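Narrative of activities, Objective 1.

The group set out to show that a structural description can be obtained from nothing but a protein's sequence at a throughput compatible with the screening campaign. Below is one input-output pair from the validation batch, recorded exactly as produced.
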Amino acid sequence: MKTLLLVPDGMADYKIEDLNNQTPLAVSRTENFNKLAKNSEVGLVRTIPLNCKPGSEIANATIIGQKIKKGLPRGSLECISLGYNLKNKEVAYRVNFINVDKDLRLIDYSGGHPCDKTANILIDKLNKNLGIKGVKLLHSKSYRNILILQGDGKSITYPPHDNVGRYIKDILPRGGKENNILLKLIFKSYEILGNEVSGINMLWPWGGGKKPRFVNQAKRFKIKGAIISAVDLLKGIGILSGFDVINVPGATGFIDTDYDAKALYTIDAFKSGYDLVYLHIEAPDEASHMGNLQEKIRAIETIDKKVLGKILEFFENQDKKYQVLILPDHCTPIRLRVHTKAMVPYLLYRSYKKSKGVDNFNEISAERTKNIINNGWELIEKLLG
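Output recorded for this entry:
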């Protein structure tokens, strides 16, 4: 049996007054979401454990079935996806290209979303000119980079997407063996990049730590699993969970991603023998961080039509049993532009077992069902157990 686990990143939201107290998902034209919802189990699930800070690393690890009890080192998860094996005393941090104004206030957490060609040129320049012993920078995708150094990974850092508008001095890293190196990296990069490229003038390290231990979910459930995402964080989570990574040309991790290609590569994965595909799409989250309501709605509608629609057509033409689990990894409200701990709606459809569902899949209808899953990792057990 084939299983699609579709995760539109950050799709969940709060009610918005300008939308007549509806959410972006509720007002979006989602014919395929709603088609499934009528015969699906629908409810709310907690993907961010109460003692954890809201983040994609926590949420997606939880969805894939890892029992997370505290924070996860985002940097080391992304490092795994780049094929770098951290040594015993090494730690990895995510490093964003960012933009600050003349008063050193954080303006853009992504440095204007540079293309990979530009980003690689800048990383090469920084590696040659930083002059910080024992530090290595690797480029990932667009504004995303990895810092590798020796340390304990215990510096307290601040995600840039959660701190737009704040002064750098108020959110500098603190604590940990490598903290002085992190501070030196920030201010030395500003010297090097200050007038280099419009939109990029500083590096920002955050989310550091050592390689975590995960349960191999592919072995646990005896499946052949694949993960499709433009984001190295998701790839690292998939690799540690026993899934193969399928890279998709044109997948950018932004609102301009190639939705058609993601659908086609998912279908090809099923044709080639994969039992489960974890399909992650970053676009709704990026639109939320930008505070762009129309782009968020457009992303949701495009996922429904170009991605889910094509995959459902494939399933239905196979005339075989299949199941679909759809949920955002976390809530990213447009008005806040940051991740929150709010529970998110889920939809579980089984072609062979009809459930009493809802007419429209969204946060409001999911809450009305009174179906609540407090431990998000239980979803994968419900799906595959």
